[in-house]
Amino acid sequence: MTYAISWPLQEGIYSLICTDPVCSSTLGSRVFDAVPLEADNGTPDDVYMTFGDEEVQDWSSGSTNGAIHLITVSVHAPRHGFSDAKQAAAAVSDAILSGGLSLTRGNVVNVRFVDARTTRQEVDGLRRIDLRFRITVQDS
User: Fold this and answer.
1) Counting Cβ atoms within 10 Å, is residue 116 exposed (0-12), middle (13-18) or buried (19+)?
2) What's the confidence (pLDDT) of residue 39?
3) Distance between CA atoms of 42 and 38, rounded to whole angstroms?
4) Helices 6-19/83-97 angle, 10° precision
5) In this predicted structure, what is the pLDDT of residue 20?
6) Considering only CA atoms, which of 117, 98, 107, 92 is closest in space to residue 139?
7) H or E stretch including 44?
């Protein structure tokens, strides 16, 4: 197993989301590694995406190092409903599943959508959609 592809995988997803025209129309450049400070988040009505949790399992053979990454990306939206968040989440999902994910190290063997969960934050009323993907990679 190797964990060495974790960062190239995150970079690849970031690049894919930022260059996808549909994602750009719904998210702009608001793709973050963590929830941004309010001053960095744009207006309260802006939808944005963050990287979430990641689990990694071995997927090696006798001759190849590989891993299965169960990744979560989250789409956050303002208080006035799930409409914008769901449109952005659909764009993110379509982009990740498009087959256009390229890495600076290793390669993607398989990408599968696992599940999604919508939540409404009790404290501030913000909406969030967590999307999980199972991405199998091998080291080159």
Assistant:
1) middle
2) 45
3) 7
4) 120
5) 96
6) 107
7) none
